[in-house]
Design a protein that fits this description.
The protein is 35% helix and 22% strand. It is of the alpha+beta class. It starts with a strand and ends with a helix.
């Protein structure tokens, strides 16, 4: 057995008994860990009143080699991020953000960049004024992109994923989640016999050239302001594209995304 100390964001919780919980924590230096917090809801327990989703704390835990659950021995709450729960839009954005962690990050696989991006994004959810809520979508798109880059799963925008060739000019491009990136307008591939032997792709989405150019301009580590400075319509399209891409690549519907993908 080994003991760890780290900063952690709580991304999921379940009641284990009347007084105990199990949880999924995204730690900065040790990656995602699944824990059991025995007696966490007892009044005098060393767990700051229990674990709650979208809260930040410092932890001590014991990693047990023969168990999927680490034993959480302390949880010192450092930031409850309470304002997230005071506004529906902030709450939706935050819940979607933490829901992505167990779907994209492997257990015990450290990704400090994911932790830092998630915490920065949750702070945005916690502090954004009601009249600046469009910033939350920009922050969400930045967080999604940063996470995909950190785990090496970001979609490709710098060349055609079907041919490997440079993209030509077009007002509308195709995007294949299956192949992981952008293509020329999919009509080209339906009519051009040159590509008849290529693998058939079931779903190709149409995306605007402005969206392709935006992602091509980002680079691997864009500052969050790069997203906040874009027009609201552009960051909304970007957030929706990344959300749909993540959902397709994980292979299942992600209920916390419905508000973003279904919103007209």
């Amino acid at each position: 057995m080994s003991s760890i100390e780290d900063r952690a964001i709580c991304v999921r919780t379940w009641d284990w008994s009347e007084t105990s919980q199990t949880a999924v924590l995204m730690t900065r230096e040790h990656g995602m860990i699944r824990v059991i917090a025995k007696g966490s809801k007892r009044e005098r327990a060393a767990f700051s009143g229990g674990l709650e989703i979208c809260s930040l704390g410092c932890i001590n835990a014991i990693i047990r080699p023969n168990s999927e659950l680490a034993l959480l021995t302390t949880w010192d709450l450092t930031d409850p991020l309470m304002r997230i729960r005071s506004n529906l839009h902030s709450y939706r954005v935050a819940m979607m953000s933490v829901d992505l962690v167990p779907r994209l990050v492997q257990d015990h696989d450290p990704h400090p960049e994911v932790f830092d991006a998630l915490f920065t994004h949750l702070q945005m959810c916690n502090t954004t004024d009601h009249d600046k809520q469009s910033n939350l979508i920009g922050s969400l798109a930045w967080y999604q992109w940063s996470t995909l880059v950190a785990i090496g799963a970001m979609p490709i925008f710098d060349h055609d994923v079907m041919t490997g060739e440079a993209l030509g000019s077009s007002e509308v491009f195709g995007f294949s989640a299956e192949l992981g990136g952008v293509t020329q307008d999919p009509i080209t591939y339906e009519s051009n016999s040159k590509h008849a032997s290529k693998t058939v792709v079931d779903r190709v989405w149409r995306i605007r050239s402005q969206t392709v150019e935006f992602f091509r301009s980002l680079g691997p580590e864009p500052d969050i302001d790069r997203f906040l400075d874009e027009p609201a319509e552009q960051v909304l399209r970007s957030a929706r594209l990344l959300a749909a891409f993540i959902q397709e690549r994980t292979g299942s519907e992600i209920p916390s995304m419905r508000w973003l993908l279904d919103d007209s």
